[in-house]
Specification:
With about 290 residues, this protein is of the alpha/beta class. It is built from 9 helices and 12 strands.
């Protein structure tokens, strides 16, 4: 398998460095919508879609989130445009795994009408009922983003097979067994992450289970105040979210050499992967014959 890291939506939220922890100044920050495109024998698998083509054309976002997040809505950043730019036909995207149905993760579902959409049954249920929290529930989910989807594959949140100390849904319908769905409730009730066995280690895309690179990779959590507030505002179950975040932090420390952990919106993590992809492959050293 080959994995491509895509930014499918840049946002410039109010607060700058107070929000993202790295921007210069205090006016606008910068976060990404980190998605994956995976080349498999079963066709292309997209993990989350970020902002979609129709969002760009029709501005199909709530006014609240447009004001708060300042999404740039660039056509060239849509998954549809990037799949084409990589030389693929969008019809070859056979499967889309969605961590959750928030507007910035599911905005491009209808751009790929041939794809089966994979997610937890719990997430589909609460999204259809607009139960995403007291204040943001009617704003975070935009059912128009998936009302034309024809093929769903829904999975239970119950206890699955163990993976790295987490429950995992294996054998996703039609998807290679190297790709797993890992329930991580808290941000939404049906939120999940996606684990990918690359053959040389695991990639673990945690979606919105955390938002800032300082929240993992160390014993103690570090997160800018603006991002802390945003995570709290968006959560539906604080106890579950914080417990899963602690488990991810522990995994990132104890399995550092086996698992590369990353979230959906941290630009530092995204740039780390894109830099690595741009580096030429290392040549093995051979001593001269003597």
């Amino acid at each position: 398998m080959r994995v491509h890291h895509l930014n499918c939506g840049t946002c410039c939220p109010l607060g700058g460095r107070v929000f993202d922890g790295v921007s210069r100044g205090l006016l606008h920050g910068r976060i990404v919508c980190h998605c994956l495109l995976i080349e498999t024998n079963a066709g292309l698998v997209l993990v989350d879609t970020g902002m979609g083509h129709r969002q760009v054309e029709e501005r199909r976002l709530s006014k609240f989130f447009r004001f708060l997040n300042q999404p740039q809505l660039r056509e060239e950043e849509t998954a549809l445009a990037q799949v084409r730019r990589l030389g693929f036909d969008p019809a070859d995207v056979r499967h889309i795994i969605v961590t959750h149905l928030d507007f910035d993760h599911a905005g491009g579902l209808e751009d790929f009408p041939n794809a089966t959409i994979h997610l937890t049954a719990r997430e589909k249920e609460v999204a259809d009922e607009q139960r995403g929290g007291v204040f943001v529930g009617t704003r975070r989910y935009r059912p128009g983003q998936w009302d034309e989807v024809g093929k769903w594959a829904l999975y239970p949140m119950g206890r699955g097979e163990p993976w790295m100390g987490f429950d995992a849904v294996r054998d996703l319908d039609g998807i290679p067994p190297e790709i797993l769905l890992v329930p991580l409730a808290g941000h939404t009730w049906g939120h999940s992450g996606v684990a990918v066995d690359t053959g040389s280690g695991w990639l673990f895309y945690a979606g919105d289970a955390y938002f800032y690179h300082g929240e993992v990779g160390r014993a103690e959590r570090r997160c800018p105040p603006g991002m802390r507030f945003y995570q709290t505002m968006m959560e539906v179950d604080r106890q579950a979210r914080m417990a899963n975040q602690q488990r991810l932090r522990q995994l990132s420390v104890e399995r550092r050499g086996e698992v590369q952990l990353f979230c959906a919106h941290d630009k530092v993590e995204f740039e780390r992967f894109t830099r690595a992809a741009a580096e030429p492959p290392r040549r093995s050293f051979r001593s001269p014959a003597g």
